[in-house]
Amino acid sequence: MNLKNYIVNSSNPQFLLSSKGQFIIQRKIFSDAYPDFPDVLTLKLYLYLCRSFEWKYMRIKKAKSTIQSNLNMSRASLNKSLYWLEQNHFIKRSNQNKHQMYQAELLTVPDYCIPTQQYISREDVKFHSGILKIRNHGYIMIPSEAITNKMLRDTATARRRWSLLKVKVFILLYSHCWLEYFGGINPDVISIDKQTHKITVDASFCYNVKATEKQVITVILSLLKEKHVKVVPAIFKSGVFMGDYGFIESSRDLENRLILRPFLLSGKKFEKQEMINKKKYMIL
Questions:
Q1: pLDDT tens, 62-116?
Q2: Ramachandran bin of 108, using left for φ above 0, alpha for ψ from -120 to 50, beta for the remaining angles
Q3: At residue 128, what are phi and psi to the nearest 5 degrees?
Q4: Residue 11 has what pLDDT?
Q5: CA-to-CA distance for 183 and 163, rounded, in angstroms?
Q6: Does 284 fall in a domain?
Q7: 31 lies in a domain?
Q8: Record's Gene3D superfamilies (predicted)?
Q9: For the CA atoms of 25, 87, 49, 266, what is the dihedral angle to 10 degrees?
Q10: Total number of domains in the chain
Q11: CA–CA distance from 93 to each of 84, 90, 97 (Å)?
């Protein structure tokens, strides 16, 4: 695969700034010390529930028939996955009336005890972005449109195109995406050589998705091919992103680097004053 073909230029708009909000995925579940969900369908259901969380009511409110339709799940599979998420303290059902739509609270994700191989509830930490931040429970903010039903559906195509590893890599890329500092994904985590275009992945990233560097690079190349991420030539000064190549005048104290940038970005990120200033120096 010739990476040169995936380097963007400023001739046309290259990225989508979403105005449809973001949702939280707690960082802990993507860790080398945290086990994978029992199957990819349960993880995809959890991501769907995270995306469906209504901050106004502080809960998920969805008819099971709607979830089944959106994810192409049988009622038996849905109930099995919901039961696992409830029993292991990821969600807590808030109504039991079978004639009402399914309602549940998202919980602060549990700790995991390796010796006993059991999840330990953290209900003592209220699920709220401010409290999670204060209590040092990291989370990833992802544009709602980035995770689609098409990715999450229980179909042969979705299982082939969106494996467990690919889902984890895609989400974890967003966790390393800091537009104000890096203009995209931290180039010290996913590094692209300017001359050879060779991709190098930091070892910690590989540990957290439980894969080899070669496997992670294969997934990244797939994401590039499908235009979920793009390669951008960027300008840095003292390790901080200044703007994209072609928008900043070169000088000796500036460094050219190739970075990855997700195709779908939250428009809210560009409302900060620093990003309002930098936006005019970016290929968007």
A1: 999 999 999 999 999 999 999 999 999 999 999 877 778 999 999 999 999 999 9
A2: beta
A3: -160, 140
A4: 63
A5: 28
A6: no
A7: yes
A8: Winged helix-like DNA-binding domain superfamily/Winged helix DNA-binding domain
A9: 0
A10: 1
A11: 12, 10, 11
